[in-house]
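Issue 218. Parser rejects a valid record. Input:
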Amino acid sequence: MRVLGADRSFVLWMLLSAVLLVTVPPAQAQSNGEGTIYSRFGLGSLLDFSSSQSRAMGGGGYALRSLNYNPDTNPALWSDQVYTRLSGSASLQSVSSEDGSGNSGQLTSGNVQAIQFSFPLYERTLGVGLSFQPYSRFNYNATLTGQERVGPRQENEARYETTFSGSGGLHRLRGGLGYRMSDMLSVGASADVLFGIIESQRRTTSQGLRNIVLADGVRLSGFTGTLGGHLALADVLATDDALSIGASVTLPARLSGERFRTLDEDLARDTLSSERGDVTLPWQGRLGVSYQPGPRWTFVLDGFFDPWSTFSSGFSVGTGETEPARFPVGGTSTLADRWRLSTGAEVVPAGEDELAGYFAQAAYRFGGYVEQMYVRPDRQTPLYEFAVTAGLSLPTSLSGTRIDVNTIAGTRGTSSDALVRDLFVGGSLHVNFGERWFQRRKLR
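Output the parser choked on:
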């Protein structure tokens, strides 16, 4: 066997690395992400990414078959691999927040969405998939100002400012196999590793007094697994059409780690307390349908359900008694079941015509979703997220390689009931490289 196109592969790899480094500064890639005050609760904002194709079509794509992408959410789709594939994605998002009193703020941050790698062991039969991507992001910043009386007789007034902020999050490393059992049925499974650090800080600054930073955080790691299936049907509603049904289930995960509290007074940071414990994440269910009436159009309809009301924590609150209602800084009693419905479409004007013009061979995508969020800060009001998505996929001179540009705009939460409404808009750049790296030589 021999490697084909090694020079081009090296150039594209360097290009991908440069795009990620330029688009996302290192500090932001580690601590920033989906910037919203709602990330203070639970494990932070939960991030879902399967491929840049599905991202522009509402974010689902659990049944979406494609030779040009690495679908990540359903391991069964890895069985379709023909090319060795490497994909990288980076995004930039701006969030504007406002409460019912007219207080507002804005946070702009960058994030690496995913790095994916896959290759076929046997073309269109058995494939390997690997991915590394954020699972959640803890990223918020809010400031409270006021005055207090100081002095022996409290005769003076001093202005103080308290800043509440969060950083960190969990990451997921996934690896697995997809196997096509027949022309209709494919199955797949993956092993998933979750790990990361979440920290919430309260910084108080006063005139003439020391600056004090109180931080609560938790370091977690653990394992889980995902099982997937895919059913492909042909000539369902018309000749040469294709209908696909895909589903996956991620098993409950038990994460173990350490919770800590530190006090930073000026430059000295002291650990006030630490303890070992664990948390239990709920199972996750995904179901999707994809329909292609012909080579030009593709339509998807997807949904998922995560019973976050069953989330539990074994960490104490410093009194020696177990109280799952507080974890680690945001509270488990503020969590609720999460679900999402999404839909989208893709059109390639040229269809299968390889002699058509460049922009006729490009793919144009659009979609949207509605999601019930898994956090309820007031423990009563259900919160929802609405968004519309769109994307443009540009072909390149290399077969199997595409450059995608996606956008998203939406709203989450509400400004009533002492809560916050977020308006967010973002864009992302995706490099999807594919090439036949290994082939057997034919004897002549």
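Fixed in the parser; the record now loads. Residues 2-439 form a domain with the Porin fold (CATH 2.40.160.60).
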